[in-house]
Structure formats: C-alpha cells, structure tokens
Amino acid sequence: MEKVFEEFLSDLKDLISIRSVLGDEKNNAPFGVEINKALDKTLEISKKLGFKTYKDPAGYYGYADIGSGNEMIGILGHIDVVPEGDLEKWNTKPYDLMQIEDKLYGRGTQDDKGPVLIAMYAVKKLIDDGYKFNKKIRFIFGTDEENLWRGITKYTDKEQIPNYGFTPDSKFPLIYAEKGLLQCKLKSKKSSQVVLEGGDAYNSVPSKITYTAKNNEEANNICMKLDAHKFEYEIKDLEITVMGKAMHAASADKGVNAISRLCVVLDEMNFKSNVIKFMASEVKENANGKYIFGDVQDTDTGKLMFNVGKIKLDEDEELNVDMRMPICIEKDEVISKLTEVASKYNLEVIEYDYLRPVRVEKKSKLVKVLMEAYREVTNDLISEPEASGGATYARALDNCVAYGIVFPDSAKTEHQPNEYVTVKDVTRSYDVYLKAIKKLNEGDMTNE
After folding, report:
1. What is the C-alpha to C-alpha distance for residues 59 and 36, in angstroms, rounded to an integer?
2. For residue range 117-137, what is the model confidence (pLDDT) as tens digits?
3. Are residues 120 and 139 in contact, defined by beta-carbon separation less than 8 angstroms?
4. H/E/C letters for each residue in 116-131?
5. What is the Cα–Cα distance from 391 to 393, expressed in whole angstroms?
6. 407 vs 176, 303, 412, CA distance in Å?
7. Cα–Cα dist 439/147, whole Å
8. For 248-277, what is each residue's pLDDT tens digit?
C-alpha cells in the first residue's frame, strides 16, 4: 500500500470533499446534486484505476468491472453519507480530509467512501501485476444507503446479480448475520403550542437539541430540572441546548439521546404534547424499547435497539424512529405492539422503511474463504464471525456478508463527530482485501 498511498490519499480527499448527503431530486440526480457528483467522481477514479465503468442513466447507481467469467464477485459500497451533525463537536472540517498523526479525519472515511476506495486499490494492485481474473469482479456503488436503499434496489431490479460477495461497510473479521431494520414515523395532530425540532437522521442518536424558552422564569425552571437529572446542557439567553452523545442507531444504547432527555424534562414541567408524553412515559432514556416491547433479544443477534432520531413539533407532531430487530421477533409483532402503545397517546404509526434480517451460514464457503484471508493477514486466530445490528448492503444479495474495515482493536467512529480511519487500518484492510479477492477469484465457491 505504501507505493500508492499518496495517490489513494488524493482520491480519498476528492471524495470526502463532496458533501454527499441526501438532497432534493434534480434531473438525473434522484438524491441531489452532491450525491450525483460523488457517484461521478467515484466512477472517474474507477476508470483511472483500470476498471470499465457504467452509470445508470437515471443516476441511481453505478458500477465498475474487471475480469470476465461465468461467476461474478460483487463488492458493494455506498458513496452517500449521513449529515455531519454538531460542527462544534468536530475538531476538523468534516469535508476536508485531514491527517493528524495516524488518523485520517472526515465524514465518510470509515462509512463508506474510505473502505470502498481501499478495496478498489487492492484490485488495482492485481491489475497492475497483470493478474488473471477468472471471474468478473464488480464494484457496485449505491447512492441512498443511509436512507431508503432506492439506489441498490434499482440495481437489483435491472442488473446482473453477483453470485456472492461482500460489503466493506462494517467490521472484521466478518458479519454473518444482521438484525432486521424497521423505521417508522409516529404522527399526531397538533396537541400543544410547543414548537420544537431536532435530530439529524433516523439512524443517528441525536447529539443535541435546542428548545427556546418563552421567558426567563421558564428557562430557569427547565435548567433546574436538567440539573436535578444531571443532564448536560448549555444555555444562551432563552435558548437551552440539551446535549447527548452521537452514535449509530445500531448501537443506540451506547449513545445518549438528547431528544429523550429534553422530553423527560418538558413532561415534568407539564408541557402538553402527545409526542412529549409518549417519549417521557414509554421511551424515557432506554434505547432497547423495553417499556414498549419488553426484553427482546436472542443469542445470535442480541438486543432490540430503539432510537428516536428526529422530532418535529409544529403544525403537526412527528417522531422518526429507527428499530434494529433481533431475528427472534417478527416485523408484524413489532408494528402491532408499537401501534398498541402509541395509540394511547393518539399517535399514528406509519412505516417508512423496512430491511429484512440476513443470515449466512458460518459453515458456508464464502465465510470460510473470507475468514481464511483475514486470519492469514492478521494472525488473529481468536476473533470469530459476529452478528450485527447494522444495516449493510449484505442484505441486497442472498450470499453476501459485511467484511471490514474496522478491526477488533479499532474504534468505530461512523456517524459520529470526528469520524476517522487510521492509516494502520487502511494498510492492513488493503492486505486483507487483496488476499480475499484472490482467494475468491481462484477458489471453487460451490458450497459443500
């Protein structure tokens, strides 16, 4: 990797500089001009590296091919990112790649521009070496992974489906199972005069939310309640900002939900609102939905995660909720129970998005080959395949897993302020992908 590191860094800088957050639809840019720009740049880099490229005329996806044969290896990634959130919590500019010692900072360095580019550079090494590809390798670039997966859905509707593959969008050694994902809107007619809006995305734990008090007396009373709970906050004039801790919704119980904290206090102040009462009574500060569903967990995929990512109280009232469901519970059961509880507060449950759970057998040839590559490079013979609450493109194919790039000894920084990837992780994931792709290309991948 050292020979091409500066070139890699230049390409990564170009990709990170594009704020590819979901935007308004334009001609041939269904998710906004910035995501379309990031797709074009990714395809431009792919072509430079030696791939044959294709872009969907409507702008939903693109792909880059090398090799030929009866089998296709799919490497799936996405070039859209979640919003940067609270800029005050960033030590660098989110869209200006910055190297500080061993860390490369920027939105998308770990999720998922950096990992996709690393895997592409691993294949470039094979191209430069004159390596013979017995199979077709296709990088598939999604554009709407952080939202409704409309890009990858268009791909699977229209294009050739890989026989097997991986997505470099999680952690090593390998993710063999993922929880189901269900996102819902909880809506109500206006039930109070409270005006409030905050949060960044369904799948991010909100790191702060600001409420503007009506007068000094109200502001002082709210601050007293916050102090009593030992909730962190900042106040400027009448603006009270409750602080939380950002985290991916898949690990919501490791974050601190600022919306939940504010609603608990506003309810204690007797603020009348269907949404506030629901939050204070049924959600509280619990990120596993235990007051709604009870204790839901299994040995394979762990606990249910329940994240309120956004709130809006204005003409109407709305919560955006992201749930990661263990394989042991069915979607219909979750919706039924949530509807039953929400109806007590005159809240309507509207399904926004659903992704089925996925599970690839740990004894499969795909898992075996990828684990061999990981272990041969790292000498880590202890770590085993895991299940996850994340929602990756592994769900888009029937024989696909999430594979890297976060190592067991690395920090997971996706969706957080100061997102970064270490140079160490760049170089060793490059080595893992290089070996894994060779093994997939050369091996008989028929399951026994």
Report:
1. 7
2. 999 999 999 999 999 999 999
3. yes
4. HHHHHHHHHHHHHCCC
5. 7
6. 15, 22, 9
7. 33
8. 899 999 999 999 999 999 999 999 999 999
Task: Judge whether 138 and 355 are in contact, CB under 8 Å.
Answer: no
CA dist 405 and 174 (Å) reads: 9
Rg (CA), the chain: 23
Within 13 A of 20's CA, how many CA atoms are on the CB side? 32
Question: Alpha-carbon distance 356 to 74, whole Å?
Answer: 20
Tokens describing residue 444: 């008989």
Q: Where are the extended beta strands (E) located within 123-224?
A: 136-142, 164-167, 170-171, 175-178, 180-189, 196-199, 208-212
Residue whose tokens read 């490079």: 377
E strand intervals along 372-415: 386-388, 400-402, 405-406
For residue 323, give the nearest of 253, 403, 219 by alpha carbon.
Answer: 253
Integer Cα distance of 328 and 296 in angstroms = 8
Q: Give the Å distances, CA to CA, from 401 to 146, 203, 427.
A: 18, 20, 21
Q: Quick one: tokens of 79?
A: 């070039």
Q: Any alpha helices (H) in 248-364, and if so which ranges?
A: 258-268, 274-278, 290-293, 331-342
The answer to whether the beta carbons of residues 243 and 207 sit under 8 Å apart is yes
3-state secondary structure of 266: helix
365 in helix, strand or coil?
helix
Strand partners, 420: 105
Tokens standing for residue 389: 């609450």
Terminal CA-CA length for the chain: 35
Residue 135 pairs in a beta bridge with none
- Residue 81 CA to residue 200 CA, distance in Å, equals 12
Which residue spans within 273-417 are E strands per DSSP? Answer: 297-298, 302-303, 305-313, 316-325, 348-355, 358-359, 386-388, 400-402, 405-406
- pTM of the predicted structure, to 2 decimals: 0.81
Dist CA 411 CA 421 (whole Å): 9
**Backbone phi, psi, residue 299, to 5°:** -70, -30
Element (H, E) at 38: helix 33-49
389-391-395 Cα angle (round to 5): 120
| pLDDT score for 448 | 57
pLDDT of 19 strictly over 60: yes
**Amino acid letter at 278?**
F
Judge whether residue 447 has pLDDT over 80. Answer: no
For residue 332, what are the contacts with CB-CB under 8 A and spacing of at least 6?
none
CA–CA dist 209, 277 (Å, integer) = 17
**pLDDT at 381 > cutoff 80:** yes
